[in-house]
């Protein structure tokens, strides 16, 4: 999720929101690759590891795909609160297929080694095309409360 | 004597079932059917049908007596939830009552040519699934039609149930249907199978209490674990992206 340091604006364009943004002097490029190493992600389940505040945001340190880019349904390794944890990507800011949902934040669900989700509920909408993908997603879909 | 101690000493898994009937307009009727199959050295088995209206006593199949009689009891809970206007109209299936002397009666007599929910429920019963719960998912939730949660005695039991369900599905499927795989095959405590219109979750009782899937799928937005999640607040400098056109 956005951090105090982060602001997004297309090059040359200032999106007027709050006064804090307009004081920033750097511009940020739009999303290039969905989720890769060193991206900060938002943990969307109700696990304690994902929700307790820490001075550093959870970051991706490894993406388990052939290329290092993670899309919806890919497993990643996160560094959270000084420890490593596997997670599953459930939404990203980069536009994907036509008629598939695009999220405003890079969402991630924490997962154990055997595939069981660490949290027990997910409030954020989860894309339903996860079902068609190759992989074990029924557990995550079972604890989701809303679908997109 | 044995039967009475098994019945009275049963663990109150029924309390879990009671906790789940939250909405007052639900007519929660819990019916559990226990049967003690024929023992090796004892006489004819007997069937006890318990039909309490407010409490359901579930039994853990675990008893071994001094005379090496192995009793395996199983019970199933099918909940009936009446339609409520607030809720999205979740209803679950009628529970089928079994009568007779414990012999297995199929619900749809005759040749079975499609893998329906009845076939799956009856095969899970045959495999002695503990605390089976079938939930009919309303059409607004475009995920699946039926959601089944069942417990097992041990990881091996879960695996056996899952493999047997897959085997029956493969036998009954037509050419156009996709193949189904077991998710969580390596995990000991939770396995699921997605049959398209039915999703089955086989868990151990401990992990079932942690996740409480039946609560979530019947109560949907009124689930208490969902309500306990504190609402997310956006940081004050969060801005939404200007529309990115591809």
From TrEMBL, chain A:
One of its GO terms (biological process) is translation. One of its GO terms (cellular component) is mitochondrial inner membrane. Its main location: mitochondrion. It is found in: Mitochondrion. One of its GO terms (molecular function) is structural constituent of ribosome. PANTHER family: 39S RIBOSOMAL PROTEIN L14, MITOCHONDRIAL, LARGE RIBOSOMAL SUBUNIT PROTEIN UL14M. This is Large ribosomal subunit protein uL14m. It comes from Scophthalmus maximus (Turbot).
From TrEMBL, chain B:
Keywords: Mitochondrion. InterPro entries: Iojap/RsfS/C7orf30, NT_sf. Residues 78-101 have a biased composition (Basic and acidic residues). Residues 78-104 are annotated as: Disordered. One of its GO terms (cellular component) is mitochondrion. SUPFAM superfamilies: Nucleotidyltransferase (SSF81301). One of its GO terms (biological process) is negative regulation of ribosome biogenesis. The keyword Chloroplast does not apply. The keyword Mitochondrion applies. It is found in: Mitochondrion. One of its GO terms (molecular function) is ribosomal large subunit binding. Required for normal mitochondrial ribosome function and mitochondrial translation. May play a role in ribosome biogenesis by preventing premature association of the 28S and 39S ribosomal subunits. Interacts with mitochondrial ribosomal protein uL14m (MRPL14), probably blocking formation of intersubunit bridge B8, preventing association of the 28S and 39S ribosomal subunits. Addition to isolated mitochondrial ribosomal subunits partially inhibits translation, probably by interfering with the association of the 28S and 39S ribosomal subunits and the formation of functional ribosomes. HAMAP family: Iojap_RsfS. Belongs to the Iojap/RsfS family. This is Mitochondrial assembly of ribosomal large subunit protein 1. It comes from Scophthalmus maximus.
């Amino acid at each position: 999720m956005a951090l105090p340091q982060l602001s997004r604006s297309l090059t040359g364009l200032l999106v007027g929101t709050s006064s804090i943004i307009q004081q920033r002097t750097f511009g940020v490029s739009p999303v290039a690759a969905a989720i890769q190493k060193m991206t900060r992600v938002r943990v969307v389940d109700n696990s304690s590891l994902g929700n307790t505040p820490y001075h550093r945001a959870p970051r991706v340190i490894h993406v388990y795909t052939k290329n290092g880019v993670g899309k919806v349904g890919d497993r990643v390794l996160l560094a959270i609160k000084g420890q490593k944890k596997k997670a599953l990507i459930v939404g990203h800011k980069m536009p994907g297929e036509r008629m598939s949902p695009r999220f405003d934040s890079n969402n991630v669900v924490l997962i154990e080694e055997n595939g069981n989700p660490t949290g027990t509920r997910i409030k954020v909408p989860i894309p339903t095309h996860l079902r068609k993908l190759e992989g074990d997603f029924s557990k995550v879909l079972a604890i989701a409360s809303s679908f997109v | 004597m044995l039967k009475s101690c098994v019945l009275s000493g049963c663990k109150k898994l029924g309390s879990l079932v009671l906790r789940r009937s939250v909405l007052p307009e639900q007519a929660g009727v819990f019916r559990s059917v226990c049967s003690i199959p024929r023992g090796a050295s004892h006489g004819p088995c007997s069937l006890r049908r318990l039909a309490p209206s407010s409490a359901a006593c579930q039994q853990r199949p675990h008893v071994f007596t001094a005379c090496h009689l192995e009793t395996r009891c199983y019970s199933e809970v099918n909940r009936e939830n009446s339609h409520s206007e607030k809720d999205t109209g979740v209803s679950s299936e009628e529970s089928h009552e079994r009568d007779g002397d414990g012999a297995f009666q199929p619900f749809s007599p005759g040749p079975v040519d499609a893998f329906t929910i009845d076939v799956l429920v009856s095969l899970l019963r045959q495999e002695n699934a503990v605390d089976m719960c079938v939930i009919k998912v309303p059409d607004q939730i475009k995920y699946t039609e039926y959601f089944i949660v069942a417990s097992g005695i041990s990881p091996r039991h879960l695996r056996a149930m899952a493999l047997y369900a897959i085997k029956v599905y493969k036998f009954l499927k037509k050419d156009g249907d996709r193949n189904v795989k077991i998710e969580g095959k390596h995990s000991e405590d939770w396995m699921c199978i997605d049959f398209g219109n039915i999703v089955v979750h086989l868990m151990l009782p401990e992990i079932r209490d942690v996740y409480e899937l039946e609560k979530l799928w019947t109560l949907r937005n009124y689930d208490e674990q969902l309500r306990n999640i504190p609402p997310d607040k956006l940081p004050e400098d969060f801005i939404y992206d200007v529309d990115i056109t591809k």
